[in-house]
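Title: Comparing notes on inverse folding

I've been comparing how different people in this forum approach sequence design from structure. To keep things fair, I'm posting one structure and asking everyone to reply with a full sequence. Here's the target:
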């Protein structure tokens, strides 16, 4: 089978590999869609950072397809089902796993990013613990399941900590910087669980905001404010979430900019990854008690609420996607993911 392997900065190769044999608890997936995410493009152009200990690796952490073969102990009825891959693999034995933080596992693996080959391949073998079966209505969301879990984890971690600090504050003002998959899904998840809060979302590229507006205005279930940078209020937001991370076209890193919008005692949530060092004004942080929190990946218990949240996401996700063929990934895919960002929320390779 054909695979794309990442060897390091500016070094990806199209290679032949044999189709993997299955262990008794695994399924073989014929990959249908895989996202070339910002993180994959950044690893290629500026990294390796997150993949550094795992090279060479087949990238692709948001992907899925159809089950075509199952291991000895797996239900044969799964053959033919559409699935999205839940990429996090934890050991279940270390302190963090036992405490419910699989995302901090000391032996963490993650399909397509950390010590485990991912989706830029014709076939991928996956443990049954790492599949999420999609019904017909949700096949358009196949590459959005992973960022949705990340968004749900952001919501979960932040609300519990904020409530601990300011238990009686209601109608929070939330600002999300970056309207990629994680950014806009965080806005949606927030809106599903806490209708009383005011959610604002901004992106460096106005066309991405326009695209989201178009798709979501058709659906009055959501109350999300799309805002241009010059209208964002300073010293105002209780929570600012930086999902943008490293962006070479930005005049200022979103994490630095985010501090200006934060009100006293507020939390800046850093989710996007940076490939360079960031300067922070410690005096400003201290005197107004602004804090930085990070959240990473998702926890096992996050998966439990996934069907409930998916049921609430009623619009057509395919309108947020640009597509590219597998054969064009090497010549165009990574550049497109990097340079044509204003054209899409998600870039999907169709296999
Ligand atoms: Zn562990």
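Reply #1:
Here's my take.
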């Amino acid at each position: 089978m054909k695979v794309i392997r990442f060897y390091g900065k500016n070094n990806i190769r199209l290679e032949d590999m044999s189709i993997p044999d299955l262990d008794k608890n695994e399924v073989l997936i014929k990959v249908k869609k895989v996202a070339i995410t910002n993180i994959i493009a950044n690893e290629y152009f500026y990294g390796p950072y997150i993949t550094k200990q795992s090279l060479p690796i087949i990238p692709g952490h948001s992907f899925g397809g159809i089950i075509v073969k199952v291991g000895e102990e797996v239900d044969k009825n799964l053959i033919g089902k559409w699935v999205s891959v839940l990429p996090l693999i934890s050991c279940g034995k270390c302190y963090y796993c036992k405490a419910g933080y699989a995302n901090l596992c000391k032996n963490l693996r993650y399909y397509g990013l950390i010590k485990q080959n991912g989706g830029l391949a014709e076939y991928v073998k996956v443990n049954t613990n790492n599949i999420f079966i999609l019904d017909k209505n949700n096949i358009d969301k196949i590459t959005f399941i992973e960022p949705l879990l990340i968004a749900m984890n952001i919501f979960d971690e932040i609300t519990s900590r904020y409530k601990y600090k300011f238990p009686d504050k209601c109608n929070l003002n939330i600002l999300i910087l970056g309207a990629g998959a994680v950014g806009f899904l965080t806005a949606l998840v927030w809106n599903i669980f806490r209708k009383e809060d005011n959610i604002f979302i901004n992106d460096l590229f106005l066309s991405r905001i326009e695209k989201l507006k178009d798709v979501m205005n058709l659906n009055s279930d959501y109350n999300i404010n799309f805002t241009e940078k010059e209208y964002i209020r300073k010293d105002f937001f209780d929570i600012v979430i930086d999902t943008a991370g490293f962006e070479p076209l930005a005049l200022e890193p979103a994490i630095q900019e985010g501090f200006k919008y934060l009100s006293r005692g507020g939390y800046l949530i850093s989710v996007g990854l940076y490939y360079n060092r960031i300067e922070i004004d410690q005096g400003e942080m201290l005197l107004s008690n602004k804090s930085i929190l990070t959240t990473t990946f998702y926890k096992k218990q996050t998966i439990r609420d996934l069907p409930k949240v998916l049921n609430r996401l009623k619009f057509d996700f395919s309108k947020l996607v640009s597509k590219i063929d597998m054969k064009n990934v090497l010549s165009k895919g990574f550049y497109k993911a990097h340079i044509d960002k204003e054209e899409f929320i998600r870039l999907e390779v169709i296999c």
